[in-house]
Amino acid sequence: MTALMFVGVIVLGYLVGAIPFGVIAGRLTRGIDVRQYGSGGMGMTNVLRTLGAKAGAFVFIMDLAKGAGAAGIAWAVFAAFEPDMLTWAMMSGGAAAVIGHNWPVYVGFRGGRGVSTGFGALLVISWPVALISLAVFIATVALSRYVSLGSILGGLTMLLAMIAFVLLDLEPFAYLIFGLVVAPTIIWRHRGNIQRLLSGTERKLGKRTEPA
Asked: What whole-number distance in Å separates Cα of residue 168 and Cα of residue 143?
């Protein structure tokens, strides 16, 4: 029974995370696939540059909700039937949503980078770690105007903060697994951005991409 519940939470988390709101926004507002423009992703930053602020805000909220919803569903199911496994279930559902966003089955497994979805899951799993990561992200973007750099450092901060919280017994060990899965995934998905940062060709916040 417990194994089947875990499978269900992981599969549902993946399917929720895979909903391609960025692609949907592009097709509904401009009749385009945003993955054909800019960075090639379907997340908030590329939508913002390609479609504008309103579409970017919509995608950010919906992508965040995917992660929070996946972790929340896991909480609801396991709190009622297997409370002893609750933290492992929330970790599994949240991580599955990030994987779904990055490799979405609905649109050929070409997704985004998982930052907003991972942040949404982290808010449900460990809001203190989420706020620490958000602070690093905001400070980095404010100083550098590179969203990608903020995302990379925010993901790294999440992992380091989670390690510290687990070692201090402020969070359960299961949440460390979330960090070990999600942070490297986010950083690896930014490998193209890292190359552009090193070469000085990365776009800064505010630069638009056709066809907006």
From this structure: 31
Q: For residues 30 and 26, give the distance between their C-alpha atoms in angstroms, rounded to a whole number.
A: 6
Q: Is 208 left (phi over 0), alpha (psi -120 to 50) or beta?
A: beta
How far apart (Å, rounded) are the C-alpha atoms in residues 81 and 29? Answer: 43
Please state whether the peptide bond connecting residue 20 to the residue before it is cis, i.e. omega within 30 degrees of 0. Answer: no
Q: Angle, to 10 degrees, between the axis of helix 173-189 and the axis of helix 147-167?
A: 160
Helix (H) or strand (E) holding 191: helix 191-199
**pTM for the whole structure:** 0.94
CB 168 within 8 A of CB 140: no
Query: 67-104: per-residue pLDDT in tens?
Result: 999 999 999 999 988 999 999 999 999 999 999 999 99
pLDDT digits (tens, 9 = 90+) for 140-162: 999 999 999 999 999 999 999 99
- Asked if 202 and 193 touch (Cβ cutoff 8 Å), the reply is yes
